[in-house]
Amino acid sequence: MFYTLVVKRVKSLKYKIAGDPAGTPLRTSESVAQLSFPQRIKYHIVQSMVKAKRGGAWFSLDRSEKSILYLSVRLQLKFESLDLLRSLASILKKLEERGQSLYACIQRGTLLAWRFSEFAVTCGNEAARAWRNDRAYAIFLGRISTPKGAFAR
What's the CA gap between 18 and 114, in Å, rounded? Predict the structure, then answer.
């Protein structure tokens, strides 16, 4: 029986396959290997969407790009159109690049926040210890220290 891949939002941001009789999410490589080619593409798109939403890169996409991803997952498509595949590939590439750059930004910002905090504490500002755990401050420091092209749309 051919199961259509319809994505349902489930608690704790897990996605399930609506046509799956067991109703369990696909996690193992064996269960993904059993899917047909269009279903594997949809599964990959869903996984990319979840990662992008958790990482914050999803919100940097245009409305049309989000719509293309949503529709490609929700509709029964065969993915035979070369234009559709090219547009999906470019959108997924954007998500991957922005997700990696945001992660690198947070890492760089956290390192700078620790250094600034240590310096301020040695100068006598004990309240600067809170800077080490301030995520917004770390993202700000990471963004101002990142080259300008990394976050351009």
Answer: 46
| CA atoms within 13 Å, Cβ hemisphere of 2 | 6
Closest CA to 134 of 104, 112, 103: 112
State how far the alpha carbon of 150 is from the alpha carbons of 15, 38, 100, in Å.
30, 32, 10
| Dihedral Cα 51, 36, 38, 21, nearest 10 deg | -70
Top-confidence residue, 48 or 146: 48
Give the whole-angstrom CA distance, residue 5 versus residue 26: 11
Which residues, listed in sequence order, are joined to residue 16 by a DSSP beta bridge? Answer: 8
Residue length of the chain? 153
Inter-residue long-range contacts of 113-117, CB under 8 Å, 24+ positions, other chains counted: 113/137, 113/138, 113/141, 116/141
pLDDT digits (tens, 9 = 90+) for 31-78: 767 777 778 888 888 988 988 888 778 888 899 999 999 988 888 877
Name the DSSP class of 22. Answer: S
Confidence class of residue 153 from pLDDT cuts 50, 70 and 90? very low
Nearest to 86, CA basis, from 70, 68, 109: 68
